[in-house]
Amino acid sequence: MHKIAIPAYALAGVKRRRGKLHVYDTIAGPRAALLVIDLQNGFMLPGMPAEVPVAREIVPNVNRLAAAMRAVGGTIAWVKMTIQDATESWSHWFDYMMTPERKAGVLKSLARGSQGHALYASLDVKPTDLVVEKSRYSAFIQGSSDLDRLLRGRGIDTVVVVGTITNVCCESTARDAMMLNYKTIFVSDANAALTDEEHNATLGSIVQVIGDVMTTDEAISRLSAAPAAKRA
Question: Are 41 and 48 in contact (CB under 8 A)?
C-alpha cells in the first residue's frame, strides 16, 4: 500500500481557502457513484506490460467501498480501458509516447476479449453494477465513453474515484468530473500508482483544486442512504 503523505503546502493552502480540510461532510448514496478505474488484469496481473503492483493491494478497500455504496443506494461503475479502434484517433499516444514493443504489448493486453481487458477476479462485481468501456485516460472526455450520460440518467451528482493509475487515468477522470460539475471525491488508499511520489503528487493537486481527498474509512463514514439537504 502507498505511504500517504499529502504535501504540507497543499494541506495548508486548502485550509486557508476553505477553512477546513474536507469539502463534503456527507455523501448522499442515491446521488453518488463509485467509479472504479481500470482495475483490469492488464494492470493487475504480474508480468503484464502495464502492471501496477500496488493496485492488487487496494482491492480490499475498493470492495469495501463498493459494498458500502450499494448499501445506501449508490451506483458502482467498473470502468475498463479499451484500446480497440483507438490507434488512429489517438495516434499521438501510440506512435510517440511509447516504444513499438510497448505499443504492441499494450494493444494486445487491453484489447476487448483479451485476458488483460477483463476485470481482476478478486473484485466484488455484481450483476446490477455498471460496466463501462473507455478509450482515453479520462472516462469523461468527449468520445471516451458514455459514462456521463449513464450517470446523469441516474441522477448522479457525486463521484468517488478509485482505481489505477492514480496520476494518469484516475486523475484525468477526476479532473474532468469536476469540470462537468460533479462533486468529486478521490480516495487516497484506494488508488494506486507506480510510486509513492507520483501518488502523493496527485493527491496534492486533487485536494487543492479538484475535490476532496479521503481515506476509505472516511468516505464510508460519510455515506448516507438519504439525499443531502439542499442549501437555502
Answer: yes
Cell of 14: 486548502
Asked if residue 79 is part of any domain, the answer here is yes
Under 8 Å between Cβ of 28 and 156:
no
CATH of residue 121's domain is 3.40.50.850
Q: How many domains, in total, are found in the chain? A: 1
Half-sphere exposure of residue 195, counting CA atoms within 13 Å on the CB side?
A: 3
Predicted confidence (pLDDT) per residue in 198-227, tens digit: 999 999 999 999 999 999 999 999 998 876
Contact predicate 156/77, CB 8 Å: no
Instruction: Classify residue 19 as left (phi > 0), alpha (psi -120 to 50) or beta.
Output: left
For 4-36, how does the pLDDT look when each residue is reduced to its tens digit (9 = 90+)? 999 999 999 898 888 889 999 999 999 999 999
The whole domain housing 101 covers 8-224
Q: Whole-angstrom Cα distance, residue 42 to residue 64?
A: 22
